[in-house]
Amino acid sequence: MSEEHHIPPSYSIKRWLFSTNHKDIGSLYIVTSLYFLFVGGALALLVRVQLTVPNNNFIASSAFNQAFTTHGLIMVLWFLSPFAFGFANWIVPLQIGARDLAFPRINALSYWLYLFSGILLLMSSAAGLPDGGWTLYAPLTTLRFTPNLGLSLAAGGLILFIVSITVSSVNFITTILKMRAPGMKLMQMPMFTWTILLTVFMMLYAFPSLLAGTIMLMGDRTLGTMYFGSPQGGSLLWDHLFWFFGHPEVYVVLFPAMGAIGDIIPTFTRRPLYGRKYIIMSFIIVALLSFGVWGHHMFVTGYDPLVAKIFTVTTIAISLPFDIIVIAMIESLVKGKVRLKTPMLFVLGSIALFIVGGITGVFLGSVALDYALRGTYFVVAHFHYVMVGGGVVALFGAFYYWYPKITGKMYDEGLGKAHFVLSVIGFTLLYFPMFMNYEMPRRVVTFTETQWAFTNYLSTIGGFVFGLAQILMLYNFYESSKTGAPAGSNPWNGFTLEWAVPSPPPQNDFDVTPRFSEDGTISLPGLGAFANGGTHTMSTAHAEHGIMESHLSQWPVALAGAAFTLILGILGVTLLPTASFIEGMLYLWILLTGFILGGLGLYGFAKEKFVSFEDEEAEGWPFKHVARVRMGVWVFLASEVILFGTFIGAYIFIRAGTLDWPAINTVFQIQHGAINTFILLTSSFTAVMALVYSKRESKAGVIGSLLLTIFLGLWFLYNKATEWQELFHEGHTFDSGVVMSTYYITTGAHGAHVIGGLAAMTILIGGALKGRHMGEHGSENIHNFGLYWHIVDIIWIFLFPLFYLI
Amino acid sequence: MVSSTSEIFQPLFDLFVWLGILVGVVVIAIFLIVIFKYRDRGSKTPEPEDTPILGKVPEERGHPRSVVISLALSIVILTFLLNGTFAVIDTLNTPPSGTLNVQVNGFQWGWKFVYPNNYEDTVLRVPKDETVILKIVSNDVAHSFGVLEYKTKMDALPGRTNTIWFIPKDTGEYNIVCFEFCGVGHAYMKTKLIVMDPAEFQDWYSKVKPAEAEHPVQGASRP
Amino acid sequence: MGVVTYSAIFAILIGSTVFELILIGQPLSQQVLITSIIGLAGVKAVLVALFFQHLKDEPKAISSIVLFGFTAVILLITLSLLSIAALHGV
Asked: Whole-model pTM above 0.80?
């Protein structure tokens, strides 16, 4: 399939299933996330209708709980970030002068994992949508209190979603850091690209703790482990893991919007952004600090007062960089020529709403005020001002801004302005009254207090105005895509590189890679400098490099489908004890299908000859000399550090609260751990030897070393299995309490990584048999596999003493 | 003020609200003025000299002075707020030696109060002007015990004991509400705090015995 | 790096694991034991990263990406542990 270099036309189903082009993937993200916006919005309106008047009986409590929980999950995870990443997919490669992302097939895989994760979430409606609040607070979410299968399906969806986010982060980080147009310094990147870079870094570091938490929750729900059902772990453990992810997540949804603002303001004021350097520094500080403020979500959980004070200071401090950003954005308008077109209106509106959201955020940073405000509608109002006002409203502005680039057509300005006015009126009616309800508990299905009646009534009216206004946007965009006036390549007189290509851009974006010179002038070799804001006209020929990039692959969607099937199969297997024979066979069949599909997918993916764009001269400071895949692997490993760090953190947290932790060599026999340590250390040595032989171009050496490594990996797993079996015989099963929970889940996750390594080696040996992976260049694959294998070893180096020696 | 906690909350909250409104109104007003003043009036507004154009990275502009000024102003305001917070937080966290200790049990979906003499009840009766210390636990999932009018709350978590305290300053009935989502009955997990005259309370308390619970506690039930 | 370096590192890794096993038999206080055993694990991990993963030959920026993750997770562990320290007296 990769032999085809031209994407099929837009009416072809094949195009939308198999395309790996960043623009197509971007469109898929935008359309899918808009679907989720309307699902989440409909759920919100259900909630609002129920709360219109006191003592209302419009929907039952259980339906209400499902509605607000799923609303939260969808809006924060399945709408906001994917919507922003629709634009990131479209625009970031254009802004940095790359022709696609670093790993186009992985990009397609991200999208399909996202879609399938959403399907899992929505599938749960058959068994009851999740209903524990989007924060999934334990132990309400454990099997004892929420026995329905719906939450397990949703948690499975969440796991797929996080995998999608992680591989997508790796892709964007590698792209932005290594594939900038020749000469383009980091500080010369447009603001949108800057914030996407910081966003994907936050995603990379924040999501693994949620992944670890969700795996533990799944363990609790399916295997009977006791992470969250026990007093040692319980509510506080989940709170820490969740909010360590959850607070950076706020900036994850906010940053792309603020970056778009940073590009839209200069375009529509006709002046450069004021204090750009300081804005970028502020964003970096926020991104760093975002990992040290999560505790303010837990001020009334009764934890240590000193820690509460630390979090109060960090939380209030994080408002300072935002202060710099907002003031600089306002100053950017001074002495400009402010054109109040729809994108700019949304951007200005978003800044105003964000100011309110930011100020009220300071309230919630104060531990003393939290005693009163926590769990009330004040919180609801605040985070909607930030995430909807600061985030969604600005992203709508971005949508109007880039719509002409994406479709080649101009939207209807009148309808756009009407959409803006209605949105602001609806928004204010909807969320401002919630501040006045600062005593009303959130997540209640109904209330009796008459003093909250009027404000709630206003909110519901506002909700409908805001919701209906969005239909206007859809109508506008749909109609304009057919009847809109041609937009031309640069309708706004924009200055960033996406405006240098035709609208919509051709398949390969740039014929000629733009070059940045020291003084900031951008030129096109062979075509000369940009003629004062002019556009360079494109042909479909590849004047510069003559390489035809691939844009189609069927393997991403196959792999994502396999992951989806596997999750269903695994969930099915956990139902086996209560299933009938037919059902049981069905579940096993699904699981088997998942495995086969996954194996075929991996094989096909690895075997496919997929040509992606690579420019020797691309700017990649400070990673210029790190090969692209190696860079991607390293970035991925950083997320693995957090994943296993979180498992170990949960172990330490639980152990600190467990007085009767078994003495060494009682439950966990040192000999098992020690033998496996020697095995794994040796396997790291043989893996390194494979690299040595590959550089020496010794085929036999490579294959021999890899076979030896596989053998050691299998031996490790065999020992592990024996040990588990012994433990089971002694009565130490999954559900024997917190000690065994931490042991089985942590070493189980590690074991799964060993299996992953074995699969990778099998593929490598296949290649080596055909004489690949040899020499200085070919050894890169062996090197990258080694990076992964050694981190699996490093993790075990820590697990061994933690479980066996102390 | 109805309690020691609302006495602590109200002035601090007022400080935040007024400073917040001040900052918000000033910043948004400046914002709107700037938008209005520099709006595009067609040919009347000249194109600025440093207009960013395609094919050139826009010039850096902006003076550190404005960053320093806005930062300094914010730091002053935030220091005020931080001071206010730190001044009261220790008070909220360290109960004085109390005269009445009550254990609060949250469960799906209701509250149970256990007095020092093991008397159990589903409404909380306390004397006016005396320090009440609550030890809060949960029997099942996470709840949050809050007295609406008292502006205070504390999570009730399984396996952990959390403490809050207050001094009621006025007799009357107040609303106890669950502030952490806890399942289908969350909205109905309410009861009353009844503040009595101290003498009246002593009289009532001396008469109740563990066996004589006037509202026998129901086990966990699902509506 | 050559086979000699790799072999030397491998020998150190095996040796320090043996040392870990010897340590736990010694009459040391719990604190000393935990600190030294976790410390040894840290040394082993750093050796694998620097030499087997060739981190020492990569630009510092690569190490920073991994180290930031490590720092963040240490922060998570420390603050979550501190938050319950008073409750358990640890």
From this structure: yes
